[in-house]
């Protein structure tokens, strides 16, 4: 097992959500990691752990979303873990910086430590549109943008846009709306 695997188990074990649905997902994620030493890598099928971060600007009351090229919807920044990621939180932060182009992002500390804010299990076609769906077991964090942050679109995004807490795009799915609500309550 890798140090990333060990960290993921620790992060999910230490995190104690106060909702039954999130507790159930946490148990499922831990069972997945116990059964799959490769459970953080894209090659682990039919599912694998991913890491994401919602970029927020609390001073301006807004969130940065990416128009995802494969999904065609506005989502938080995130993606697959990579061998160089030392922790699950580091993977989420790396993805947020890469996809937003914003240097100086910091993951939000919850109760004095960096911890997930939410878990979300969803089906995707990350191996290609003509390949079978697989399952992303997403561990979601919140990344706080520095004052005056300016985004820069990467090749991983069709568009990047700031939205007010209450002005999310009409077709934003429930999972992203829930993540925004949780982030807003924490900042």
From TrEMBL:
PROSITE patterns: NUDIX. The keyword Hydrolase applies. GO terms for molecular function: hydrolase activity. Keywords: Hydrolase. InterPro entries: NUDIX_hydrolase-like_dom_sf, NUDIX_hydrolase_dom. It holds the Pfam family NUDIX. Transmembrane segments: none annotated. It comes from the Bacteria. Residues 46-185 form the Nudix hydrolase domain. This is NUDIX hydrolase. It comes from Kitasatospora griseola. The lineage of its organism: Bacteria, Bacillati, Actinomycetota, Actinomycetes, Kitasatosporales.
């Amino acid at each position: 097992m890798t140090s990333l695997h060990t960290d993921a188990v620790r992060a999910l074990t230490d995190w104690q959500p106060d909702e039954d649905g999130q507790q159930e997902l946490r148990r499922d994620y831990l069972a997945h990691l116990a059964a799959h030493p490769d459970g953080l890598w894209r090659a682990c099928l039919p599912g694998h752990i991913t890491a994401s971060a919602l970029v927020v600007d609390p001073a301006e009351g807004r969130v940065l979303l990416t128009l995802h090229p494969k999904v065609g919807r506005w989502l938080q920044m995130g993606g697959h873990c990579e061998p160089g990621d030392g922790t699950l939180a580091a993977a989420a932060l790396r993805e947020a910086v890469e996809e937003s182009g914003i240097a100086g992002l910091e993951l939000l500390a919850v109760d004095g430590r960096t911890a997930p804010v939410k878990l979300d299990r969803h089906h995707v076609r990350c191996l290609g549109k003509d390949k079978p769906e697989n399952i992303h077991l997403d561990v979601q964090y919140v990344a706080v943008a520095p004052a005056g942050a300016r985004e820069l679109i990467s090749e991983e995004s069709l568009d990047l846009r700031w939205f007010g807490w209450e002005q999310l795009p009409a077709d934003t799915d429930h999972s992203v709306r829930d993540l925004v609500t949780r982030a807003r309550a924490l900042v």
